[in-house]
Amino acid sequence: MPITLANSNYGKSRVRVVKITRHADRHDLAELTVNIQFEGAFDAVHLSGDNTSVLPTDTMKNTVNALAKSWSGEQIEDFGCQLTDHFLRDNPQLSRVRIKIAQTEWTRLAQHAFTGGSDEKRTTQIIATRAAVGIESGIENLIVLKSAGSRFQGYKKDRYTTLKETTDRIFATAITATWSYRTPQAAFGPCWRQARAAILKTFIERDSPSVQHTAYAMGEAVLQAVEDISEIRLSLPNKHCLLIDMAPFGLDNPNEIFVPTDEPHGLIEVSLQRT
Amino acid sequence: MPITLANSNYGKSRVRVVKITRHADRHDLAELTVNIQFEGAFDAVHLSGDNTSVLPTDTMKNTVNALAKSWSGEQIEDFGCQLTDHFLRDNPQLSRVRIKIAQTEWTRLAQHAFTGGSDEKRTTQIIATRAAVGIESGIENLIVLKSAGSRFQGYKKDRYTTLKETTDRIFATAITATWSYRTPQAAFGPCWRQARAAILKTFIERDSPSVQHTAYAMGEAVLQAVEDISEIRLSLPNKHCLLIDMAPFGLDNPNEIFVPTDEPHGLIEVSLQRT
Amino acid sequence: MPITLANSNYGKSRVRVVKITRHADRHDLAELTVNIQFEGAFDAVHLSGDNTSVLPTDTMKNTVNALAKSWSGEQIEDFGCQLTDHFLRDNPQLSRVRIKIAQTEWTRLAQHAFTGGSDEKRTTQIIATRAAVGIESGIENLIVLKSAGSRFQGYKKDRYTTLKETTDRIFATAITATWSYRTPQAAFGPCWRQARAAILKTFIERDSPSVQHTAYAMGEAVLQAVEDISEIRLSLPNKHCLLIDMAPFGLDNPNEIFVPTDEPHGLIEVSLQRT
Amino acid sequence: MPITLANSNYGKSRVRVVKITRHADRHDLAELTVNIQFEGAFDAVHLSGDNTSVLPTDTMKNTVNALAKSWSGEQIEDFGCQLTDHFLRDNPQLSRVRIKIAQTEWTRLAQHAFTGGSDEKRTTQIIATRAAVGIESGIENLIVLKSAGSRFQGYKKDRYTTLKETTDRIFATAITATWSYRTPQAAFGPCWRQARAAILKTFIERDSPSVQHTAYAMGEAVLQAVEDISEIRLSLPNKHCLLIDMAPFGLDNPNEIFVPTDEPHGLIEVSLQRT
After folding, report:
1. Which of B263, C232, D106, D157 has the greatest count of CB atoms below 10 A from its CB?
2. A14 Rama class: left (phi>0) / alpha (psi -120 to 50) / beta
3. Catalytic residue at A265?
4. Which residues contact B67 (CB under 8 A, 6 or more apart)?
């Protein structure tokens, strides 16, 4: 019995993009993960290795980035339709385009600062011997992002350095903080809420010349706010949002369209104590 | 050169427990994941296979459950100290006990209903051909739990049925909903918010004789609330919280202490349309 | 426009089961994850809350366990058909049953010992100051299981102990080992292979009175086999396979059918050094 | 009480790199994930925002890539020491460097083809009604990579296309295949093994002008090899290994050093049937 191609499709999955819309009084933030799937006249690709009808999946990704710039940043349904319109118009070989978009929910903290839904935990660790009890409490995975007030300049450069200095970058991280109580009789609930508030206030209000500087400032703010905390450790991954180079598409990108990446990531750790 | 045991420890990781504290006017909810680690005089276990000093890690888990009952349900630091006190008091072979607790953040929706932090997404899918455009939008991973108003009774039993009927169980799920718009000109933002509100209102207010019945009611509420939605599909995993049998410890457990489990889980799917 | 139920289904997902088939000269091992989905005459469940047609998903899970006993342990397709036959025969309300099974690949190491596919890594850590370099290498996530030669007896019991002593249990773990080299000029490749072989040989050949005892024996074997290793740390989660109580189904279960669980799990850590 | 900086460190985590070493008769493959951590004189960064001592974590990543080129591709311990030597030599502000490397285990299939450890599953799905039984079996997550015999040329370009044509790329994927049996009496075990062998043989031996072409060829090979299979579906993510541009470091990179990425990824799906 002869063998035939019954169906085929191809596309790009997990295209991630962040769009910052810069209003006079606030920034809006949209973080999307986009999947694209094409169906159409692709038999020759499969059967004879003729690629002339294949728009590369890398181009699909570039198109998401390019069209994110003209999108309003508001309804993901509109963005999806702009993508299907674009692909159908330019690609007569297509019979069907499917776009899936998932938008991460970010909650506004301030004009330019947001917190991500996600899986924050309140934590504690008790280490007890017959002689003593030590109590360390903290926060795990408090996800935050600010789209203003962060820069990175004046750093050391060597022959492998390609990073460009920036006066305006996205600062996104997932804060883990752990602090030690001076006494097992601390008011754990209020202390925890005060420490968390001090961390967030620092993130929102303080300009950041580096993640290191902000991490130290967070620790200092907690120690100043909560008497019963004797020391604190903070661990801040730098969840990079990379500015996309749109020059190849004939577009500028004045800090609007970014690709968020999970790996590699920077990791900044600091501990502070009273002396 | 002789070989020696330099250090050892053992314990139980990822002990999960949910405690419902039943006040007259509301329920409080605490969901914890506990890790326990013992250090002490355990050389004989390693060297000669003599287990007499080993409290089984299964007993550590049982102890977390038993002590969760007398805990106030408030500060996790207090619960950790109650555990270290208990283990040190009853186990002279221990030199050190370490307890780690991570508390999942639940936000109150109503007297007996909560929503979990987590990773909710707003979603859309556009399928476009040269003839037509179809738009499906929805919600992914809206995590909710109610500790009242859910029962499961009167079901079919066969020779393999061991489940007990209940008039009062925990109903926890991660809602995925997908609906179709009648028109590509719908007001996507307001429609999405109305649909989400209708789903939550149904979850909170309607008594649940089964997940199936609640899933249908959610779909019906969305179709009633949003004219421009023509059909809806809901997928509700039943994230079981199993009542712990405390009779072996000489304790009763009137719907207070539960173990949440990820696998296996029930899965209920339903679709509704206008006809 | 009236609203109608268009489709519905329900079932149980992620039902896990391990079957050991005991031949005279060897054990065979099958580890399955099963998903079950029912379609049929369930409108009353959704519309009026009448559960009389609903076989609980908990019963589906019990049925997988019970039928695993009579299954040959060979082709998963046969097991799937036995399940669909059973459910269709006993449940006239069903129009369609779907069973999905995924079988984990285990590779035989010996008569009663296996290694899991999985994500094993070779690891190293270099810590260098201007004064010294320390090199620690190891193995991460070496997954193994033995179905004979493991027991757990004679341990301490208290009022919360419900675990039963056993002379024959499944021992499953994911080994992480880290050792220190005496010199930065060690033959890293051969040392790594000798250390790994010593760990596996100990796991396969030595009877295990506890995970602790086996962990120590593994460390001892590595130090005896590889001169250039000065100390070693092992971390062994006890990935419990719980014997299923089949008495409620009128069946015995002589160490044949188990449920593997990920949480909670025991965790055993030990370090050994030359002195 | 004054507050002081007790400790600090920073670095780059999850730097991924693949090195292909091209011997006359075979390729060798090393896939590493590297974590780098610096300690030293960094107080000014934290306290005054002076970044002059901070080598960017992006430069750490570039250094891993650059030094991967001169590394032998053999012992990860040697690579780690080359990295610590480099960083200590060039950075007097450092007191300590820590490098962690995890190497993914790849097993050779052929001269230029490998299979990844990982979590392959044998799968089946039974759909049964009172009238008929359909059996679909398959493979999930069979991870393979070939470092020769794959090209991508002659594809459609538009204004957003930046991808360069290549006659020699890495082809890495995680194969999911699902096939339908013509009869419920097929010899499931032998059929499964023959189908898997046909897929692997095609991957290893056939030159690949596109993932699409290879996916079709795999399906064709299975249908030719196994009479009792009537149709087959294949899903192949294109797990891109991107060639790293080393020109900024004054190095060439003749298809030796790559960065493997998980997102975004291409996704190619195809189904074939007998007619």
Report:
1. C232
2. left
3. no
4. B79, B82, B83, B86
pLDDT digits (tens, 9 = 90+) for D81-100: 999 999 999 999 999 999 99
pLDDT tens figures, B113-132: 999 866 899 999 999 999 99
A166 and chain D: CB distance < 8 Å anywhere?
no
- Residue A209: which of D5, D51, D224 has the nearest Cβ? D51
CATH topology of domain B109-273: Urate Oxidase (3.10.270)
pTM attached to this predicted model? 0.95
Question: What is A108-273's CATH number?
Answer: 3.10.270.10
Distance CA A254, CA A261 (A): 19
Chain C hits for B248, CB-CB cut-off 8 Å, are 162
D49 interfaces chain A, CB cutoff of 8 Å: yes
pLDDT in tens, A204-252: 999 999 999 999 999 999 999 999 999 999 999 999 999 999 999 999 9
B137 at the A interface (CB within 8 A)? yes
Q: Which residues of C touch B42 (CB under 8 A)?
A: 212
How many residues does this entry show for chain D?
A: 275
Is pLDDT at B1 greater than 80 in this prediction? Answer: no
Respond yes or no: is residue C86 known to be catalytic: no
Contact B152, B166 (CB under 8 A): yes
pLDDT (0 to 100) of residue D34: 97
Say if D76 is an interface residue toward chain C (CB within 8 Å).
yes
CB-based touch C/A (3+ pairs, under 8 A)? no
Q: Which two tokens stand for residue D95?
A: 């007191």
Over residues A112-118, the mean pLDDT reads 87
Spatial CB neighbours of D70, under 8 Å, sequence gap ≥ 6: D82
| CATH code matching the domain that covers A10-104, chosen among 3.90.920, 2.30.30, 3.30.1130, 3.30.230 | 3.30.1130
CB contact under 8 A, B80 and A126: yes
What is the spatial distance between Cα D231 and Cα A5, in angstroms, rounded to a whole number?
10
Give the C-alpha separation, C50 to C93, whole Å. 14
Active-site option among B12, B61, B146, B239: B12
Please state, in angstroms and as integers, the Cα–Cα distance from residue C75 to each residue in C3, C37, D226, following that order: 44, 20, 17
Do the Cβ atoms of D32 and D102 come closer than 8 Å?
yes
Q: pLDDT means per 10 residues in chain D (275 residues)? A: 93 97 96 97 96 97 97 97 97 97 95 88 97 97 96 97 97 97 96 98 98 98 98 97 96 96 96 94
A15 touches A62 (CB < 8 A): no
Q: Structural domain boundaries of chain C? A: 10-104, 108-273
